[in-house]
Amino acid sequence: MEIVLDKKGSTAATLKVTIKADDYQPIVKNKLKEYGKKVSLKGFRQGKVPTSVVERMYGKSLKVDEINQLLTQSVSKYIKDEKLNIIGFPLPDQAQAAKIDWENASEYEFFYDLGLIPEFKYELSDKVNVSKYEIQVDPKRVAETLDNIRRQQGKMDEAEKVEEGDYVNGELKSLTTEFATSTMIPTEKVEKAELKKFIGKKTGDVIEFDIDKAFTDKSSIAHVTGLTKEEAETTSGKFSFTITGIRRSFPAEINQEFFDKIFGPGAVASEEEFNKKLEETIAQNYNREAEVLVSRDVRKEFLANTKVEISEAFLKRFLLVNNEGKISAEQIDKDLNLYQDDLKWLLIRNKIGEDNDVKVEHSEVIQRTKELFMQQFGGMTSLSEEMEETMNKLADNYLSAENGKNYNRTFEEVYYNKVLKLIESKISFKTKKISVDEFEKLVQAN
């Protein structure tokens, strides 16, 4: 067997593999003998079928299988031995493969295209500077959050007159058809112009409105009438609505019971302490989100300042082949910059990991999987002995599923996080204090 690498430049190469008869014939002959012992053919006793007949029946398929296996093993070994850094995997030259004469030839040539990735350098030191964000929570945001919590923790009760945000029960009737039903109308779903007809009304009052003007969304009409979406599409005209009850969500009172319900018994003892605790909690939540933004900025910094050469032509072809018709050439062209950046970032962080001997232990993969399950079980932080055993079984089942794909995904996640922590420990950060509004704009811009 002979393998020759023909470089077409720094990012592309062709691999020529020549397989001779001596490479595959001995194994094929042995397999034919084994087949001969098992073949049942009319006119011959089992195990007595002539080798020439067995070869006519199975020789070609056995030869093709053996050569394909040799190709896979030899090409992989060559790439590993020569320490070639490539995009994905070698792509066979299908045009050349179509010309192969499997029946008559004994020596075969195969060609593969490679997308080479040349050596590149990166800067991993305190010269690399990335912004970190410290979120400052203003009193307005605290007040808005408090209002939302009070509404969520409040209770529904009867009201005398309709106000915006109320839920109004009543009898809905069409003024042009026989349709009638008991229903509840959420005033928040009613269009502003028609909502004026509801505001201030009491139990027993009758309201007339055009249903298409009151609800511009057909799904809202379906909800209010109880009709199917298809039936709601054809529902229109004037309706009357006789109010039979008004329900309103009254916000929870600010007292010790409210404090204990939100932060736990005795955590805060006054409205001032509650607001301070609420401000801290909001800041913590936003600062966790800010950590995600930091990782994005680290990625941007390394992409902008690390020159990684890749072959666009090979990458396009590889994406098309690897995704087996799931994406079109047009989609690849449209999103090529995104694919290139994803690949470059993968190469950069993997090289940083290799250069700094970052390793992932099996126990770390198990632990990460258990953490994910614990989050699904309400964010529990400690486990009983019985629950620990259950979690171990869940983790094992999950990681062994899908032929190990779940294991590989979790392994890559753990590896990436370890590399990212290493990067963040080496570079420098400049802390910027920004408001919640500024932070939200920053997130949207990214």
Account of the protein in words:
Among the domains are: about 1-115, 2-Layer Sandwich (Alpha-Beta Plaits); about 155-250, Chitinase A, domain 3, CATH 3.10.50. It is about 50% helix and about 15% strand. The chain has helices at about 20-40, 50-80, 95-100, 140-155, 190-195, 210-215, 220-225, 230-235, 255-265, 270-305, 310-320, 330-335, 335-355, 360-375, 385-400, 405-425, 435-445; strands at about 1-5, 10-20, 90, 110-115, 130-135, 155-160, 165-175, 180-185, 205-210, 240-250, 430-435. Strand 7 (about 165-175) and strand 8 form a beta hairpin. The model has no long low-confidence stretch (mean pLDDT about 90).
- The separation of the N and C termini measures 52 Å
CATH architecture of the domain at 2-115: 2-Layer Sandwich
Q: Considering DSSP H and I runs of 4 or more, what fraction of the residues is helical?
A: 40-55%
Top-tier CATH class of the domain at 2-115 = Alpha Beta
Mean pLDDT over the residues: 90
Gross geometry: elongated
Q: Indicate the proportion of strand residues.
A: 15-25%
Question: How does the helix and strand content classify structurally?
Answer: alpha+beta
Give a quick account of the main beta sheet: strands, pairing sense, barrel closure. Answer: 5 strands, antiparallel
H/E element sequence: EEHHEHEEHEEEHEHHHEHHHHHHHHEH
Q: How many strand units?
A: 11
Cα gyration radius (Å) = 35 Å
Annotated CATH topology of the domain at 2-115? Alpha-Beta Plaits
